[in-house]
Specification:
about 625 residues; about 0% helix
Length: about 625
């Protein structure tokens, strides 16, 4: 039977059915398209040796003048600075009590310690460190009390509970009931309120677990009652970072990794610094710290449409005067600022209904604001990325690029992505660039019950090709300051998470990575005729040193609405020359899948022994 070379159309196309994706690719996982050919994506391996606490949704890297490289990691529980492979807890403090303000109560045969501290301001899962405590009579000694605890429950505005443990983490049970003050000189240092791992659309009933936090409340969401998102940027050699809708903090690299970040309002010379903001960044060319969704001067209330900026090259002076460049502007469009991205010559920002440009123009106005689109927004605060001079972003209606004007990107998997997206958790969607492969990746959650990120969609902006797949990640940092892309895990079974180096090897952190690509319909003519396939001549390029094994499967049906059945299955190795099959069908699809370790693959041009066949 004569051989026919079939060139599959590049990219995944799921805008129709397998039948309409004629001689193209209909489905994929862990596969990218490069130069029109599908190939297995690179693997990943753990970057940090020890875990960090919480779900990370912000990673930022920068280097000092002496080329010391730091990574900032913002999780829903903590904030870390990593130098090398070990995360260091630099979570800022929000409150340090006076000695004796904190007292304790222990109950016989219980691990629960009840702490009394008037107007503590804590929420469940917050962290507090005690010092200066003495031993309670109920076998809870000073060494047990005097370390960091995570709050288990909030009893009321003046008390909460923790579970007693040793310094090594072992459980401790009181041998007798005791109410004491821990020696009368206990100091409590409270870290900034923790946030949630899931987005909450509204306050009041259902905004928090029943009987906790805001149950029955009619007020808005408060500290710790919303999905925790951080924004970060370097201010010279140091870091400025913002916990969304909480506050703005500063970490001085010269003070070392054992020094916590501090609220900018506590810095020397602080003048009318914002006490709350949705996002911050440092404008590249003019070195203003810009706060989006900040409080106005003289008010503690957050204005979700107000943009404020500091004096040039200052992190502390936010008071506008005739002799500085500090100032502010309120965007009169929509109800809140969703997010902002720094570009080469301007800052692009989105409200919940529109897109705007913020460009430095100097005195007297400092920044000029222009409305770019009055009807296109962004689906989440991190759904945009600046890549090689263009800004790519995702909205609820599709994918867009800004290159002086906003244009929608034609997407061959748009309906697949948007119809499966869990809109209730859309604020978790984030965009990432993988510049080595000219790719923009959007990670997103799917389904109603599964709230965490599980899927991705890739856009190759050089070739205008799309691919899809499954991978749980919380944040992404492209190569640049660091040698390889780095992404965070989304482990929800515990508070322990990792960073992973990507495009490293061919495995899933040492384990097998399943990768596949599946074609659309292969047929003869308009599908009226049956076809016979008696052999397949595969063409692959392999990399790595693992034992190659590609499962090659032909599935077929006689009618578009008929369920496909497996017609042939064979294994391709580095020694395979051809695969002899006997397949007769009107329509067929080809699926290539690898599940081994230590190798990658790239598809070439397949040839099929194929001819028209009769009806019998």
């Amino acid at each position: 039977m004569p051989l026919q070379k079939i060139e599959f159309a590049p990219g995944v196309n799921k805008e129709g059915t397998e039948y309409t994706a004629d001689s193209g690719w209909f489905d994929a996982d862990k596969v990218r398209f490069r130069k029109g050919r599908p190939e297995k994506i690179g693997g990943w391996a753990k970057y940090n040796v020890t875990t960090f606490l919480g779900m990370c949704r912000s990673i930022f890297a920068w280097a000092t003048l002496t080329d010391v490289k730091f990574i900032g990691i913002g999780t829903h529980l903590k904030f870390y600075i990593m130098e090398g492979i070990f995360p260091n807890d630099v979570t800022p403090l929000r409150l340090t009590t006076s000695a004796g303000d904190v007292t304790f109560a222990a109950t016989n045969n219980s691990r629960t310690l009840t702490i009394t501290d008037t107007a503590h301001g804590a929420v469940r899962n917050d962290f507090v460190t005690f010092s200066g405590a003495a031993t309670l009579n109920g076998n809870i000694n000073a060494a047990v009390i005097n370390h960091e605890y995570q709050i288990a429950t909030i009893v009321n505005a003046n008390s909460y509970t923790v579970l007693a443990v040793t310094a090594a983490g072992g459980a401790v049970t009181a041998s007798a009931s005791d109410n004491g003050n821990g020696g009368g000189s206990t100091v409590g240092k409270y870290q900034v309120n923790t946030g949630l791992t899931n987005f909450v659309a509204a306050a009041g009933w259902g905004a928090d677990p029943w009987g906790q936090g805001l149950w029955g409340s009619a007020s808005g969401l408060g500290d710790g009652d919303q999905l925790r998102l951080y924004s970060q940027d370097n201010f010279g050699e140091d870091l400025v970072f913002c916990a969304r809708d909480i506050g703005i903090y500063y970490w001085d690299s010269s003070s070392g990794l054992n020094t916590r970040g501090v609220n900018i309002t506590e810095l020397g010379g602080a003048s009318n610094c914002p006490t709350v903001a949705a996002q911050i960044l440092v404008s590249d060319n003019d070195q203003h710290v810009v706060a989006f969704g900040a409080n106005n001067i003289g008010s503690a209330n957050q204005d979700p449409l107000l943009i404020r900026w500091s004096d040039q090259e200052s992190i502390t002076d936010w008071t506008p005067t005739a002799t500085n460049t500090a100032g502010g502007v309120r965007i009169n469009s929509g109800s809140k600022i969703v997010g902002a991205v720094q570009t080469r010559q301007e800052i692009l920002l989105w409200t919940d209904v529109s897109t705007h440009s913020m460009r430095f123009v100097g005195a007297p106005f400092i920044f000029q604001f222009t409305t770019i689109s009055s009807d296109i927004s962004m689906i989440s605060p991190n759904a945009a990325v600046n890549a090689r001079g263009n800004v790519y972003f995702m909205d609820k209606s599709g994918f867009y690029v800004y290159n002086g004007a906003v244009q929608q990107i034609a997407c061959s998997v748009q309906d697949h992505v948007l119809s499966n997206l869990n809109l209730s958790q859309a604020y978790k969607v984030f965009a990432a660039e993988n510049n080595a492969f000219s790719e923009i990746i959007w990670f997103y959650p799917v389904g109603i019950g599964a709230t965490e990120i599980t899927n991705y969609v890739i856009y190759n902006y050089n070739e205008n090709l799309w691919s899809i797949g499954t991978l749980g990640r919380g944040a992404w940092l492209d190569s640049g300051v660091m040698n390889d892309p780095i992404a965070s895990s989304v482990i929800s079974s515990s508070d322990d998470n990792y960073l992973y180096s990507h495009e490293v090897g061919h495995n899933d952190d040492g384990a097998p990575m399943t990768a596949f690509v599946e074609s659309g319909d292969i047929g003869i003519g308009d599908g009226q005729n049956f076809m016979m396939i008696d052999r397949i001549v595969p063409d692959f390029a392999f990399s790595g040193d693992g034992e190659v094994s590609i499962n090659m499967k032909l599935k077929g049906s006689n009618y578009p609405l008929q369920d496909s059945t497996t017609l042939s299955e064979s294994v391709v190795t580095e020694q395979t020359t051809q695969s002899n099959v006997r397949v007769r069908s009107r329509h067929a699809t080809l699926r290539l899948e690898s599940t081994g370790v230590g190798y990658g693959w790239r598809l070439g041009g397949f040839r099929f022994g194929l001819r028209q066949d009769g009806r019998r």
